[in-house]
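== Sequence entry ==
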Amino acid sequence: MLTKRQNLMETIKGGKPDRFVKQYEFMNFIMEAPMGAMVGPGQTIVNDWGITFTWPEGQLGGFPVHDDEHKVLKDITEWRKFVKAPSAIYPEERWAAAIEHANSIDRNEEFVTCFVAPGIFEMTHHLMSMEDALMALYEEPEDMHDLIDYLVEYELAYAKQIVDHLHPDCIFHHDDWGSQRSSFVSPEMFEEFFLPAYKKIYGFYKANGVELIVHHSDSYAANLVPFMIEMGIDIWQGVMTTNNVPELIKKYGGQISFMGDIDSGVIDFPGWTPEIIFEKTKEACERCGKLYFIPGASHGLNFGCFPGVYESNDEAIDKMSKEMF
């Protein structure tokens, strides 16, 4: 029987996996790594960038507050005045628990994985709102290029700290690039503004011992896959059914792999049942096949929003492995 790591590599390299990869099983997340404050359920916080986040009770996630009082950046042409990056260097004692965790992992079995969020696109709209960020790409492209370069410099500084302290095999990086039906920006605009940014970021990781780049975008982004390949993404996690995943596998398998094809919204809700989860998992496995595909919910980490959902999805994948392998 292949290890989790071996089975993952056989799957994404077009080899001979002996079972389906079971969601996030190949990634051992080092969540103890220091990073900026993140909002939790029922909380309102201000992070190190000055962005106010709130997560209302009963909701599935948090989001920045973007009224006039709370926007960090109200005018893109004045970004240098209002956007101030925090230090990317944390005291050594803040790394101790993360280093201990990383050193305890059997790298033959699992990938030592660092979690990075938010992404570059998300940072632009966290600072100024989604509407303002999208308009700024059209109205003030030079300032947006400069702001993005500034955000990339910060992320590269943080990436160096991750690499130096933890020597990860894998990076799991968030940046949502679309809605369920379309990308937020055109491919042409994405190529101009965000492809160069991620070529620098993911290129740095790949040049410093990171074997696997897993990028989360639970959205439609089929029109951006060529750019994902160019920037060095190995696995697009969060790929929704609206992307026609079998067609993507047929067209791009061998260059990139796809993790998802089970929309969280149809399995991860208060009235979920094991039968619903198995039905959707069976559909995904049968239409996408054994290679260049990892079945799992589109949700962006190794847990469900409602108790028992993630574990039930694992069980459904086990059943499909027995049926198809």
